[in-house]
Amino acid sequence: MGSPPGAHVIDSTTSEFESFVAVDGLKLRRIFTARYGVEVGGDIHAESLAWAWEHWEKLRVMNNPVGYLYRVAQSASRPHRRWLVRTSFPAKMPERWHVDRDPTLFASLQGLSDNQRTAVLMVHGHGLSYAEVAEALNCSVSAVTNYLHRGLAILRRELQEES
Fold first, then answer.
1. What is the 3-state composition of the chain as percent helix, strand, coil, each rounded to the nearest 5?
2. Out of 31, 45, 62, 69, which residue is the most buried by the measure of CB atoms under 10 Å away?
3. pLDDT per residue as tens digits for the range 4-58
4. What is the pLDDT of residues 113-139, one digit of tens each?
5. What does the radius of gyration of the chain's CA atoms come to, in whole angstroms?
6. 69 with 51: CB under 8 angstroms?
7. CB under 8 Å to 35, separation ≥6 — which residues?
């Protein structure tokens, strides 16, 4: 006996979505964590992927599905912003960072604007290019450049003062 009608469609759709989650889902998780912190970012990541699965037929043909999901996440973050949930990061650096880093870095990152913090973490923390960050944030490369340079200037100033 063969497969039931439509079984192949479900399998290929599931496989395509799983591939998207494996590659772009990781990028989204990093972006949401950089923008909203560990707890809120994780919640928003899960919500955006659930939305993506429900709307996969529409999303899969878009030119910039990551940017679109970023906008979906901005809407999902409103309740957190309404209740003034602060962006939070771990109290100490992750063990996988093998180089010495200033222990006050996370606190300094919290002082940046959301866009500045996201650009700094995505480019310097995760190695994405300016173009990749611009695509994910659905903005221009020059906007990412501005966020990055302004954020780095603030970090340099703050971290020098604390030294």
1. 70, 0, 30
2. 69
3. 554 444 567 788 999 999 989 988 898 888 888 777 888 889 999 999 999 999 9
4. 889 988 998 898 888 899 989 988 889
5. 18
6. yes
7. 41, 87, 114, 117, 118
Count other Cβ atoms within 10 Å, centred on residue 85: 15
User: Residue by residue, what is the 3-state secondary structure of 21-81?
Assistant: HHHHHHHHHHHHHHHHCHHHHHHHHHHHHHHHHHCHHHHCCCCCHHHHHHHHHHHHCHHHH
Give the total residue count for the chain.
163
- Tell me which residue has tokens 């960072």: 97
- Which token pair is 4? 């039931």
- pTM as predicted: 0.63
| CA gap 129, 133 in Å, rounded | 6
**What is the maximum alpha-carbon separation in the chain?**
73
Residue 92 CB neighbour total at 10 angstroms: 9
Residue 68: count other Cβ atoms within 10 Å of its Cβ.
18
Amino acid at 98: H
